[in-house]
Amino acid sequence: MKLTYRFKAQTIQHRRPVSGMIVAEDPEVALFELKKMGLTKADVSLNPLETLSTWLGAVPDQRELARFYRTLGVRLTNQGDPVEAVTGGLEYLDDERLKTQVAIFAAQLAEGHKPADAMRLAKFDERECMVVGAYTTAGDYGKAFANLSIEIADRYRLTRSIKGMLRMPQIMVSLVWFAGLPGVFLGLAPNMMKFLKQGGSTLKIPDSIQAFYAFVGWTQENPWPTLGLYLGIPALVWWGINSAWFKAQLDRIKIVHQLSVRNDHAMLWGAYSVLDRAGINPAETCFMLSKSAARTDSRDSLTIMGRRLKGGDNDTLAIAAAKFPGFVVSQFLAARSSGSLPDGLDRFVLDLKDDIEILTQKLSDIADLTSKVLMALLVLALAYVVLYPAIGPVLSNL
User: Fold this and answer.
1) Could you give the CA distance from residue 293 to residue 110 in angstroms, rounded to a whole number?
2) What is the pLDDT of residue 364?
3) Most exposed among 175, 273, 276, 339, judged by the fewest C-beta atoms under 10 Å?
4) Is 207 or 327 the better-scoring residue by pLDDT?
């Protein structure tokens, strides 16, 4: 189980103080990881709140990372001191995980490490380290951070747009489950049960409503099993939504499939463009990007392309044999024939972003309509089981 610890340590050579957070299974592993980062005399202590955030999937804020890279690129282009440029970035960072990485990055630069090596010690993404390393060899690693900033910001916006599409349905479901349902079972339904008892046998109640109130009575007599159901059902639903089977079924919906494919390839080919500009070996680029691909078919295609490139094929033959979607192959070949592969890929990614915007809006409209229909059905069901017993007999006598 991953735990999050706060630490205080020093660099090995110049004893520069460094503090921050580290994720590890236990204190011994945390100390070992800090040693691998080039830090010594470390002291660690468990941080319960950040541990909970880690369990919930917290990662370094990508928006802040893009902003940090952009500012760093400008300062380095203006011939700023690398250590001061990185250290200055700490002032406007709020995310503790990213601040830890930047603090270690600055400390290791001050120790004399090359930028890419200092980033690796700070546990930055390997792809980002390779880009910085390639541009450093060419003597222009300010441009590396500028390009990385654009690519990361684009990836963040794509991810955020898709998550934003589902925000309102999620809010509605949460309100119904955690506010509406307790209100019905703890307030409306018990009061209606009292009314039904006072009415005695003179009220004719449909069997379906009687079954509902029998269940309400069971929940009142068995509070602990009820609490287990109340908390267990959302957990079961969450597990189901994140299961491979559910995602496979969801991917069979045409618009979801189209959005998933284009979103994945927009991120992948945007990164490929950055790596190609940096002069990274194409086969190595394919293997690296395959690890970050969201879709299995994208991952498999990149692996095949990398193997073909490593075997001696040029990139046009490799991509044709890699079983990518047809639109990816045609756009890659067009980018290759344009005279500048990175510029052509950038244009391809812009087209994909336009497609993603249109598909996201369509899916958002569908999700919005679906949530409204479900809410209307829920209100009707609530009126049926709560209001019908009270007004049904009156209406029948009219």
Assistant:
1) 34
2) 83
3) 339
4) 327
